[in-house]
Amino acid sequence: MxxxxxxxxxxxxxxxxxxxxxTVDEMIWEFMEQEEIPGLTLxxxxxxxxxxxxxxxxxxxxxxxxxxxNTLWPAGPISQAFAAVAVMQLHxxxxxxxxxxxxxxxxxxxxxxxxxxxLQLLRHASGLSDYRASEGFDLFRQWSFxxxxxxxxxxxxQFVPGSSVIQSATxxxxxxxxVERVSGKSxxxxxxxxxxxYLGLRHTGFCEDLKxxxxxxxSLTENIHQLFKKDGTYIDPTEPAASYDEQGELxxxxxxxxxxxxxxxxxxxxxxxxxxxxxxxxxxCIGSVIAKPRKIKHSPFQKILxxxxxxxxMSTLLFVFNTLLLxxxxxxx
Length: 333
Known about the structure:
By secondary structure, the chain is of the alpha+beta class. The chain has helices at 24-35, 79-92, 118-122, 145-152, 169-183, 187-197, 269-278, 314-326, and strands at 39-46, 49-60, 65-66, 73-74, 204-206, 265-267. It has eight helices and six strands. The radius of gyration is 21 Å and the shape is globular.
């Protein structure tokens, strides 16, 4: 980063990653102390390169697992990019249009939701209440689509659809249901096939996939890794991060069904950086790398998808989202 305070201008590829005489390591460590963050993974991207991926501290404070380049962190709001890409892929497949009403695919939606469009859901411009704020919502239980809809079905719209923007998990819940009904596959399987596997993201998945990654149960060996000494698959393991509350109790992992499409993906900093390079987090929500082998068609909706955010610091918001992904905190919600 170059600022007016710099005496010399740094060029792309400079080995000096300091800022005004302070190293990245110093700034990260100071920030971690201030925010009481036990561990994080940092990825520095200079597209198309990812020249630095490094872990700091612990991904699991109680078991003393180190934060590393392979650590799986809850992706939080970045998960919405996967849902948006899934919708745009179906659009590119000719199976839905951005101005289609969600009720066209989900007829049983409440009467006041019948006119809400796919584009309004993508923009968080639907006016739907956020089911997370409902009294009956429990973050740590399994939910069905209809159960979550029922939590807010009687709530009035917060504004006329398309007239404002307020983030709501309900928007992306509906989008994932549209993906399922249009594709004929579960949302999990569609995203896994068309994005995670297609891009070769080896350190990305959903909560229910974490059991499929190879890592050692070190609680059996006094929290000391042993298997790597005789089995190379346990060297540089892909381990999910763990959080603990103020009493030191393990915070349960949030089931994907509780925040489907909104905050349900786990990924390494490297994999998120790969997605960032493909353009998946840009306004179009699609990149040619994610397209099927045929040449991708450019939808006119790509340019207007984020129209409500014009004038807002979107680059800053995306940076914050990418940064929050890497932090290990006691609360994952």
